[in-house]
Write a structure and sequence with these properties.
By secondary structure, the protein is an alpha/beta fold. It contains 7 helices and 10 strands. The strands form 2 sheets. Strands 1-10-9-6-2-3-5 form a 7-stranded parallel sheet, covered by helices on one side. A 3-stranded antiparallel sheet has the order 4-8-7. β9, α7 and β10 form a beta-alpha-beta unit. α1 (9-26) packs across α2. It is globular, with a radius of gyration of 16 Å. The two termini are 22 Å apart. The mean pLDDT is 97. Bound molecules: fructose -6-phosphate. Fructose -6-phosphate binds next to loops. Residues 35-39, 66-67, 132-134, 138-140 line the site of fructose -6-phosphate.
Length: 236
């Protein structure tokens, strides 16, 4: 694991965007695994600028997102599909047909998860997976559990996750209680993992995840077993 401490969120965002841009330059038809939440916003803004400047060409890139709230359609402005369209896909020259987010509104969520794993396999797996980390150690929405779940699956969100994500909603009651998330299988099979975290409040969970025991109680701790993980952290 490479641990990089950035001076500021702005620097973290530039570094993360640099790593993703390098991936796209080296393999123009790569598969990017993407995350939502507040951590990647700066990274996505930098990627948009790099694309606008003509430095990175996303036209052959495919992307797979980590997760989606159950019950929200892609048109819902709280959905992760909407987040990605707004914050990244509409600002770079990626073909939207090559961008994938798990569906939150399927009648058969189990089939949805299976189809998503098959899709990732059919794309040849993920070249670079971008991750944030939750205060309870979740990656994607793989919440603390008794086991590591490999497949894309539906999870009940933890109280701490619902509270943390309430900032994006009008009231905490509006935060969906469940989500569909890529499992640890596809994440661990990604060729490279880039985890970004900012804020003093993430320090303790980062220590537990990367320097504590490997346990599904701290889901991100599984990344200690991945051969190519870069963590970029900034205190602010
Ligand atoms: C979102 C996701 C989550 C977030 C995590 C951190 O797609 O997969 O694991 O990365 O909840 O969220 P922020 O960045 O808002 O602190």
């Amino acid at each position: 694991m490479k641990f990089v401490k950035a001076e500021s969120y702005e620097k973290l965002s530039r570094m993360a965007a640099g790593i993703i841009a390098a991936q796209v330059i080296l393999k123009p038809d790569c598969v990017l695994g993407l995350a939502t939440g507040s951590s990647p916003l700066g990274t996505y803004a930098n990627l948009a600028s790099a694309c606008k400047a003509g430095d990175v060409d996303f036209s052959a890139v495919k992307s797979v997102n980590l997760d989606e709230y159950v019950g929200l359609s892609g048109e819902d402005d709280q959905s992760y599909r909407y987040f990605m369209d707004t914050n990244l896909f509409s600002k770079i020259n990626i073909d939207r047909a090559n961008t994938y987010v798990p569906g939150g509104c399927s009648d058969d969520m189990e089939a949805e998860g299976k189809a998503y794993d098959e899709l990732i396999d059919s794309l040849g797996g993920i070249d670079l997976q971008l991750l944030g980390i939750g205060l309870d150690g979740h990656i994607g929405f793989n919440e603390p559990d008794d086991i590591f779940v490999g497949k894309t699956h539906v999870v009940e969100l933890d109280k701490s996750t619902i509270e943390a994500n309430a900032r994006f909603f009008e009231s905490i009651d509006d935060v969906p209680r469940s989500a569909i998330t890529m499992g640890m299988g596809a994440i661990m099979k990604a060729k490279k993992v880039l985890l970004i975290a900012n804020g003093k409040n993430k320090e303790d969970i980062l220590n537990q995840a990367f320097y504590g025991p490997i346990t599904p109680r701290v889901p991100a701790s599984i990344l200690q077993l991945h051969p190519d993980v870069t963590v970029i952290y900034s205190e602010n």
